[in-house]
């Protein structure tokens, strides 16, 4: 989604500013011409520029938190957390906007690597949402965190460390290419259930999840059938969906609240339970999240 190579948008950044905005991502150079960029933007921001690669390069992007919009060739595209995006971009102007607390990982794949691996590449921008606990999202979070250990590139890593990062990047690319391929539609196994009504009920509160029996009664189906239908539609069960919604709200609260205040607002009486739930979703503790987003960490996490 952003640029590769020297451009007015990505200029040399002081080490202290790397990872603080879209203008200064963590950059990791990998074998075979691949590289990754890890973006962290605590505040909403905008970019305008031109992709200036001499040859078409595949951009594989995973939105880890927040949301963003990109306009190129007169078309606007909107993405949110857990979206996997594939785009082959070459000398195109663009504009880009992101929300608060935005983070994303991007892999740049050169044309010669695509040809060598005989990878199919579409000229269209393709997007597919993945589940929170999917292998794709887990690999993206791991590579995102590893890429922030050092901002000076491949030379600072040992050969085994470099292999780990390269392996994660190629594994993630394989998952992304698999997820974004069109799938044949299959008939629903059950008669229609008003799942949107269930989804809205789950989004109403942050401090207490509705009972699955109440949700099933709302739809006049059994709890088992509701959970199966909900997972098929949204990629996870009702409670997991509620927890994702709850923790995403927590990530916003942590920008201005302490860990303790955030846990209490979400209905947690045990801070360690809140910290464990947050770490399960984002791969880091609440205080580590505050540090990454540029806010003062709370010692209670």
From TrEMBL:
SUPFAM superfamilies linked: Homeodomain-like
UniProt-listed SMART domains: HTH_ARAC
InterPro entries referenced in this protein's UniProt entry, alphabetically: AraC_XylS_family_regulators (IPR050204), Homeodomain-like_sf (IPR009057), HTH_AraC (IPR018060), HTH_AraC-typ_CS (IPR018062), Tscrpt_reg_AraC-type_HTH (IPR020449)
One GO MF term attached to the UniProt entry: DNA-binding transcription factor activity
Pfam families the record matches: HTH_18
The HTH araC/xylS-type domain, residue ranges: 196-292
Keywords: DNA-binding, Transcription, Transcription regulation
PROSITE patterns for the chain: HTH_ARAC_FAMILY_1, HTH_ARAC_FAMILY_2
PANTHER family reported for this sequence: HTH-TYPE TRANSCRIPTIONAL ACTIVATOR RHAS-RELATED
Protein name per Swiss-Prot or TrEMBL: HTH araC/xylS-type domain-containing protein
Organism listed in the record: Acetobacter cibinongensis
